[in-house]
Design a protein that fits this description.
Subtilisin Inhibitor, 5 strands, about 25% helix, serine protease inhibitor, secreted, peptidase inhibitor activity, signal, Prot_inh_I16_SSI
Length: about 130
């Protein structure tokens, strides 16, 4: 009986080391959607929302379809947003925008600070137009 118990303990130990504990655990799927924020100078104010672009645009973004199309057009690289020529004053009141999440399976982690909201608007709309 003692030999039998020792053999079982040895077999259990061998199996425990042969198969990693998480080998059958699949990677959790990425959480879809991109959390967007716009914040004012010294974080005196902040707005944020989650933009969902899976099959059709959804979420609380007032221009979700246009924002999703803009992100699609640059393959998720927000540095490539085309923007438009700004007609802005030279006022310095910095505004920071961030994007973090997953867009169509691609991770996005991006932020930029603009000298003022007019420049932010010219460079990033419709994505950060909320």
């Amino acid at each position: 009986m003692r030999l039998h118990a020792a053999a079982l303990v040895t077999l259990a130990a061998a199996l425990a080391t042969a198969v990693p504990a998480h080998a059958d655990d699949p990677e959790p799927p990425p959480r879809p959607g991109v959390f967007l924020t716009v914040s004012g100078s010294d974080n005196t104010w902040i707005r944020g929302l989650k933009l969902m672009c899976s099959h059709e645009a959804s979420g609380h973004h007032p221009h979700a379809a246009e924002a999703c199309a803009a992100i699609d057009a640059v393959d998720g690289d927000l540095d490539r947003l085309p923007g438009k020529a700004p007609l802005c004053t030279k006022e310095y009141d910095p505004v920071t925008v961030t994007a973090a999440g997953t867009h169509r399976g691609q991770d996005i982690s991006w932020h930029r600070t603009f000298a003022n909201d007019c420049l932010r608007h010219a460079a990033t709309d419709p994505v950060f137009d909320f």
